[in-house]
Amino acid sequence: MSDAPACVDSSADRRPTPIHDRLDRAKHLHAVAQAQQDGQSQRAAVSGAGVARSTLRHWNASPAPSAPAALSAFVETPEGVVWLRRILVAAHWSIGEQGGAGVRVVCDFLERSGLSAFIGASYGAQQAFHAGLEEQIVTAATELRGTLAQAMPHRTLSIAEDETWKDGMRLVGIDAVSNFILLEHRSDERSAAAWTRALEGGLEGLNVTVVQGTSDEAKGLLAHVERDLGAHHATDLFHLQHEVSQAMSLSLKRAEQQAETAETEAKARWQDECAAEQAYHRRRHGPGRPPAFAARIDEALSAYVQASLAREQAHAHRAEAKALIGAFSEVDHPYEIQQGQAQTPEQLEARLGTLFARLEAIAEEADLSERLCAHLAKAKRLTQSLVATLTFFFMMVNTRVQALDLAPAIEQAMLDDLIPALYLERVAARSTRAEPRHRLRALSAQRLAPLRQPSHPIQSLDPQTRHHLEQVAGECADLFQRSSSCVEGRNGFLALYQHGHHRLSPRKQQVLTALHNFAIKRPDGTTAAERFFAQPHPSLFEQVLERMPWPARPARRRPRPARQPYLVPVAA
């Protein structure tokens, strides 16, 4: 047996070459430069920095970018590398995600801004960076949601639900108060069971109770809200107005146009008869009876007057129907918006009945078809749902206020002044015209004025208790929900986004939901998540920024070979 030593694999002694990311490189270069400024040799500075001299020579041999020297020096520092990453993430975030412009527009931005001298602006590099950004957005939003859910106080929710049809059907549910998206779930059906399963997933881990659902009158949604959730279903007022509009608007517009045409023709006929009489008298005529111009003119004038009256009536019918459709929005409030007084369900039912009585009279005068009258009858049946929603609102408000166990004077002040004032303020914020907005805010301030007097019993409470009463009053004011417009707005946004991208992948859908909930802010500076969870949260952008890799350095541009003409002669 040989005593020769066994052959040892020399690869076991090999050490992997350290790979420095861009920030490490900037830190090492900064440390070496600082040490040399302090009087150390390059060898000692490199040894202290923990990097090989060959690596340092390679870094220093990189071609200088075609950019201002001061900027080039800054981006090679650690602070400059961090700044470059923020700029790149912000470009993808604002242009690619919120703006929906795509990766190629980000590449174009880097080229035009001159940042391509420091950041690789090729499509491949930026597409990979963009994909990583989307993954980090979804991950960070999921973690934020879990963290906030652990500390959130209990909330009663009024949710708005509807389906959208973008790349298949999606079931969409949004908290109507905070505008927080609870679910955007792909589904093959929209039955009550499908809605309930989707909402259970959307509410998982949340300390909430659904007490009300606002939607259209689809049977699946009705069963889902009333049977499965045991909540109150609030009819969307828009759908009632839409049914009335289907019955009246187009038909009355067409009748007005026909009346205008008939008036124009009758006027032209009258003018022609008058012109014929004048032309007859300008000529010399022989014996014989002249034409009966007076009778013809009177007949034409009478027809013109009748056509004008018919046109005025058609215009009046259309204008009145339009005003009546808008009046539904003014009437359907728990506190009437003229004086701010509470409106009983009986008063609401009577006012809605008056509106429908006049609409039915207009339909009869305009001789609408049976099919159109059926739309009007369908809308009229929804009035019972609106009255039921008002009854539910006052029942919930009284229950919430009585649970506070306040003194009678303070309890009455909350019911008669504080809650109506906060509700009117919310209505004013949603108003699109300045005049009603200012009037409603003045009315709200008028209702609050007695409560602010030092002699009022509510002022004897400590500040913490008053703040709690304001919070409860605000929650009570938010209980009245008559619209699912937040879902319709979301569906419209997705439609526009899909129009530019042709499709919405599951990851892109999750990114858009995350940005809606945790990134987009209202003018008051709050996100939907902050309003929903009733607590502030770290910036989603900053959370994602810290997880993203450092920007890739631009590669050396290699010249492309010149393109040869197609008709170059071939050597014999």
From TrEMBL:
Record organism: Thiocapsa rosea
Native organism taxonomy: Bacteria, Pseudomonadati, Pseudomonadota, Gammaproteobacteria, Chromatiales
Pfam families: DUF6399 (PF19936)
Name the UniProt record assigns to this protein: Uncharacterized protein
Spans annotated as Disordered: 552-572
Classification via InterPro entries: DUF6399
